[in-house]
Amino acid sequence: MTALADILAARIRERGPISVADYMQAVSAHYYAGRDPFGVAGDFVTAPEVSQMFGELIGLWCVDTWRAMGGPARLVLAELGPGRGTLMRDALRAARLASDFLDAAELHLVETSSAMRERQADALADHRPSWHTRIEDVPAGPMLLIAAEFFDALPVRQFVLTDKGWKERCITLHDDGFAFVADAAVFDLPWPPSALGAIREISPEALAYTTWIGRRVAQQGGAALVIDYGPSHSGAGDTLQALKEHHRHDVLRDPGTADITAHVDFAALAHAASGAGARAHGPVEQGQFLHALGIEKRAARLMEASPPQAATVAAGLRRLTDPDAMGSLFKALAIADPALPPLAGFA
Fold first, then answer.
1. Three-state SS across the chain?
2. How many domains in the chain?
3. Domain containing residue 128
4. For residue 123, is it within any domain?
5. Is residue 309 part of a domain?
6. pLDDT score at 40
7. pLDDT at 35
8. Is the pTM value of this prediction over 0.90?
9. What is the mean pLDDT of the chain?
10. What is the pLDDT confidence band of residue 34, given thresholds at 50, 70 and 90?
11. What pLDDT does 199 receive?
């Protein structure tokens, strides 16, 4: 058993089973506290690490959206969970084509991991970033916010349909490890009829984030771009998963040693943002979004500029956009000030 497993086991013995959300929260906090999990040597690869094109196109999207906002002289440019800073570094490099955008942008990073803050400081030193542990601490003003592969790591509550109704799925001790168990309480939940044993997920934390973002851009101007993996429409299913060294890992084994995530419910995010006064654009498939932004043209220019890297560029293009890679499972959702026109990639 890992040190975190011992802590969780003691907590269960003392208080009883814990929710899936509490388990995810503890595992993620422990996992990210002192490690760099990204890249070939880590546990998973994110889109910005696949190809520079991803961040560059998001940077140009930010410039285009800022102009649609009227080009405010001061812009809060924020990112949730910036990883190594790769996406923002590539985005700001592409944005050099618009020096007035760079003059306006103040960079704010929402990051809780000290290890990741160090990597971000190295990658973004020229842009003088400020860090925050909570999104609520991002300063006021017109804002563009990026959240790429952030929402999937937020805790989800799971509910299982029993013959008595919906019960929360929890985690208890079993033999020498952990096991799922249904809590005793029955919940009256507004979901359509399902087969016994069906599982539904909800992320209160994700809904709180999108409600805050929606209210913020509706009241102060701007937009947010969310890119992550999950379905376009809400539905049943157990999407809890863990990755370790790029392979599937049992979510209940050796907690804290693997990345634990769940699919993002884009329809729920869009509904929460709209309820807060914003306009939701999308979701659209990542491949469709990137093609609309001109990724094929960007790839052609990179291959022409550096023929020895052509195969690598082509591989990155395929991985980001092909339906059997990241192109369909990953989606893009924009949360915007209702006064803005249709945004690039969503028109």
1. CCHHHHHHHHHHHHHCCEEHHHHHHHHHHHHHHCCCCECCCCCECCHHHHCHHHHHHHHHHHHHHHHHCCCCCCEEEEEECCCCCHHHHHHHHHHHHCHHHHHHEEEEEECCCHHHHHHHHHHCHHHCCEEECCHHHCCCCCEEEEEECCHHHCCCEEEEEECCEEEEEEEEEECCEEEEEEEEEEECCCCCCCCCCCEEEECHHHHHHHHHHHHHHHHHCEEEEEEEECCCCCCCCCCCEEEECCEEECCCCCCCCCEEECCCCHHHHHHHHHHCCCEEEEEEEHHHHHHHHCHHHHHHHHHHHCHHHHHHHHHHHHHHHCHHHHHCCEEEEEEECCCCCCCCCCC
2. 1
3. 34-153+204-230+265-287+330-336
4. yes
5. no
6. 65
7. 67
8. yes
9. 95
10. low
11. 97
Residue 127 has pLDDT above 90, yes or no: yes
Nearest to 20 by CA among 252, 269, 263: 252
Q: Is residue 183 part of a domain?
A: no
Q: How many C-beta atoms lie closer than 10 Å to residue 135's C-beta?
A: 17
CATH code, domain with 53: 3.40.50.150
- The answer on pLDDT for 272 being more than 90 is yes
Give the phi and the psi of residue 29 in degrees, each rounded to 5: -60, -45
Letter string b/e over residues 57-68, b meaning 16 or more CB atoms within 10 A of that residue's CB: bbbbbbbbbbeb
The predicted-structure confidence for 283-317, as pLDDT tens digits, reads as follows 999 999 999 999 999 999 999 999 999 999 999 99
Domain membership flag for residue 149: yes
Question: For position 347, what pLDDT does the model report?
Answer: 81
